[in-house]
């Protein structure tokens, strides 16, 4: 159950529609929609969905005018065509490829996920709720004119574009997925109103092979893209050290009106598609830090999204349930046992045993970068390269 000793309930709109599970590339694809439904069942079984200040909402699918805030009209039509003809291959638009299989609901389900994120952004901006979560979202690789990396429509970019349309002048986007948030960076590369920050595995060892420290924004927005590529094998201590060496200082300087965050769970040591070694406990710690930073620098306006994560049973449901609990102001004690009813549901659906507790048994600690760094350490080299590339643009010392 939520930790009563630290219950400081925040208002939260949790966006959920069971129909988002139609975002299903099919058997054998890593993006198994069970990760979404199992997360929601865990949220419900721990009493979070019915908790004080929490409203569970469903929003309509994003319409064409909304999708075109980021995506080209030609691409939207291509996605619709792929839905009607899933047997066809359209490599120019990234559809029907090894990563992005076409399926009959490819347009409708993608637009529905985007609709949840856009409505969540609207709710936060209009003051209907301080915090909103759409863990089905975070599909950060989609480009304006093509699908990429299991992502068809780029809901984080669409949410940000809608915030700009509503009048926001400074939006910060922080992406802690193991993969570079390339599609969001691309969408706002030359827009000084949007700060994009991505911590990810080094592009030399992981898709999409972008996100180098030298990528800092377009000529009209220098310093508004920040990328910290982490060496393969980085664990809790290094991941938290890197985050604290960059993100708080940048947010303090940028002074965002809204904080949008992407919480891909694929940084985990058990994720089959990447090479970091982070635990659920560190992922929980980062969610708590971003919650605090939203209150400190963005007036509490926080939109949190899901993202990658392919350890469908052992990792994703726990990580995103911690995210929901944090956003609700009712953090869950890591020692909490997972409910027996949820474990039974996991076994029924997957024939796999569920984790017994909401923790990996780790106690994440990190060493402050300001206390000194090792110039021979690969992680410290990466941190210093990013600080040198970005911080001077904000009047900060590297």
TrEMBL record:
PANTHER family: HISTONE DEACETYLASE HDAC1, HISTONE DEACETYLASE HDAC1-RELATED. Keywords: Acetoin catabolism. It comes from Kitasatospora misakiensis. The keyword RNA-binding does not apply. Pathway: Ketone degradation; acetoin degradation. Transmembrane segments: none annotated. Belongs to the histone deacetylase family. This is Acetoin utilization protein AcuC. InterPro entries: AcuC, HDACs, His_deacetylse_dom, His_deacetylse_dom_sf, Ureohydrolase_dom_sf. The keyword Glycoprotein does not apply. Residues 29-326 form the Histone deacetylase domain.
